[in-house]
Structures are given as C-alpha cells and as structure tokens.
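FAQ: What does the model actually see?

It sees only this:
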Amino acid sequence: MLILRTCKSDMTAHGGFLWPTSGPVECPDWNPSPVCGGGLHGLPWGEGNGSLLSSDDDAKWLVVEADDSSVLTGDGELTGKCKFPRGNVVYCGERDGAIAYLRENGADGKAIVFNAVTAGFYGQASAGYKGQASAGSYGQASAGYKGQASAGYKGQASAGDGGVIVITWYDSNDRRRVAVGYPGEDGILPNTHYTVDENGKLVVIEPVVDHA
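And it is asked to produce this:
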C-alpha cells in the first residue's frame, strides 16, 4: 500500500519525529491499537481527510510504501486516515509530484485528495478532498469534501459538503447550458449522484434495485 503524508520543511512531524527523505522508516513506540498515536500516520492511497495534511507552502509531501497487513484504518480515531509501524519512503517533494506518483503507481481511479482528474466520453473520474473531477458526455464525476465535480451532456456528478456540482444540458433551442448545485443548499445532498432533467433541474440518480 502507498500512503500519503506531509512533514514540515525540516522533515519533522508531530512530537518532533524526524522522517527520512527516502528509505526505511519505523515508529519507535508502535501501538497496534486502532487509536491515534503510537504509529506512523497518513492517508491510505491518498484517500481520506485531506485537512490532516499540511497546507504550508514549504511542507514536504511524502509517499510511503507499507505492507498492507500492517496498516490499521477504519472508524473512530482512524477515520479518514491510517497508521502503520514501518514503511519505506519512496517519494519526497511537492504536493503535485506526490499525487502524480500515487496515480502512476496503483492509485489511479481512487479519490486522491487535492487531485485533478479528467475523463472523456462515458468516462469516470474521482477526486477526494478539495479535488476536481471532470467527465465528458454520459460520464460520471465524483469529488469529495469541498471538491468540484463536472460532467458533460447526460452525465452524472456528486460532490461532498462544501463542494460544487456542474452538469451540462441543452435547452429546447439546442443551446448549451450548465446546471449548478451546492451540496447543503436548496435540497442538494452531499455524496449523492445527480443528473439534469429536460428543464435543467438537478435530479437524483435513483439506485438500481435488483428484484431477482
């Protein structure tokens, strides 16, 4: 598994722990309980709570490789993140480089935080926290908290709280227009897929029920 995290410019993290810019790293006080502390922390495959990462301009963005079986994640204190006892730093640098490394090494298609993803006709695009996802006609775009999801003609889009939904449609004069929705306002629900009806109104995509 690849894990995304940040450090200060001097490579220190919470409690003064010093991270290497590359190579092996291990927690000196590993606690195998699903609680914060007693481990190395980050976002598994770059997915989760992006607000846990540093917003400092000079922050170092790391991608750490860890054994899947050693990574703890889930509900409670580990919601939106994970912890692990040891790993190997395979990337250290700027945010965009870390995101690119994730996408090129197994995380493509996952909702990576701060990611910008574009998919074409009938394509699917997913982005996480403050990410941007765009899909073409008949495509599906999903973005996380404060993200923006845009879809083309007859497309579908969903966004998390604080996000924006933008879907293209054509009126009776065949003029291209866009329908815009803000989760949390005017009945628009977060993390729910919408499309546009013939009147330009955002409508929920009802899930398919299998009665077999």
